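In this section we walk through a basic example: taking a raw amino acid sequence and producing a predicted 3D structure, encoded as discrete structure tokens. The instruction is simple. Fold the sequence below.
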Amino acid sequence: MTTKILKPSESAYDYPLLIKRILTSHQRTEQRNVIVSGEHRFSYAQLNERICRLANTLKQLGIGPGDTVAVMDWDSHRYLECFFAVPMLGAILHTVNIRLSPAQILYTMNHAEDDLVLVHDDFLPIVEGIKDQLETVRGFVQLSDDTTPVAPAFTTFGEYEQLLDQAEADYAFPDFDENSVATTFYTTGTTGNPKGVYFSHRQLVLHTLNMVNTLSTSSSEGPLLDHAGSYMPITPMFHVHAWGIPYAATMMGVKQVYPGRYEPNTLARLIREEGVTFSHCVPTILQMVLQSDQARDTDFSGWKVIIGGSALTSGLAEQSMALGIEPFSAYGMSETCPLLCITRMTSELSARPADEQAHWRVKAGQPSNLVDLEIWDPQGNPLPHDGVSTGEVVTRAPWLTQSYLNEPEKGDELWSGGWLHTGDIACIHPDGFVEIKDRIKDVIKTGGEWISSLELESLISTHPDVAAVAVIGIPDERWGERPSALIVPSSGNLTSAVLEQHLQQYVDSGRINKWAVPKTIKLADDIPKTSVGKIDKKLIRAQWS
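The resulting token sequence is shown next.
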């Protein structure tokens, strides 16, 4: 038998999944909820008008289908407008990681073949230093938070707001192939040059639809975000489209608050003053917000937060819940757009005490809709979902990057065997919860056994005198490697002996073996981070050695 395929009417409209579809008629007429960014407050109707004005501006500057527009900005209304206007023209949005070194930024802009750069005042010196080495860039647009912009040291087409004021307020965005590339950005934390990932309109629309559903159904206590909520990203918009949630928030028509440069006191104040109900960030940022001076005057109860990028520790989960915050873990990576898994809290789990809830909230969650996720052994054999067997996480979903930009050989390695390889070691429990044990490169191999640095970090974090912790493997002549801990103490009472005594309870219960107790403990004022706020274990190893 063969599959039956019906021929559509020649008059039927072949509806392409394009980013412009996220801007529905409902959002064009939304008046109650607003976009907040610094001194700016826009209705959704005004947002749509500004997106049209930006499209007309870009077209006047020579940008068309297939061109690449780079953005160097903090999280702002401008970035949200670029998320839509640039790909809706048929051009490609390159979200530049402004925390890379100037040499790496230069590499990514040349590799992506950028045609136009939109650059914030704060990053003008970086562009000034590399502009003569940019191979394809035809010009620049200045982004300024001041009514009187600073004068750049090089020629630009003008300042963003002034250019938009001069542009037409209507634009008829065309239909085109939904598989056209919409966005690109570059991975961090790898050896060698950053790798470019890219996503099509179809992939981003499908990811957005799934994200809307996920945010609506992940908790028995109510949606993480709905039309009545207020959303503020605390993940850079250059990093995986701020996890794709600005697209979902726009489709929902919710109030959106863009904080600019991340400053813990500003974030806490905005949560209080703008009534923010939902955010997402890495654990280190959440910790800094909770420790800020403004946090003392902020009631965090009812704030729902998705934690990703690094593992949520039990200590931080319990600290958050004590303040009335509802933390959720999510799992994904740059190459996966990023959503793969998220914590799903049933009524039964939500009714448990905080310490028992933390046991589930720190796991990576359960696979989201349309996500196939397995664990494989080194030979590529699937392993059972028994909560014990561990292997590499491999996945399939309709929004995963299909390769690396201009590096097909690395794309073939990423997709070896027809599944995307994450480089993460995990087990999957019978109830579907995914428990990430470690990155393959971070797992500690001692005496023939594997020790999870993530699990050790989570256990250490439950000690009340630990503010932050990173665990790495240090070479050992006898055992291969031994775990060592870098700790930011919250008081002067923490010593190696105190920490060893704390971990002994987990040795006695059989949760970890005695070799997992760190051989060396170092106290520090801070822990090195990557450009997106993750713990930089590669740098810690280098410093330790």
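Looking at the output, two observations stand out. The chain has three domains: 23-194, 201-369, 444-544. The longest strand covers residues 466-476. In the next section we compare this with other chains.
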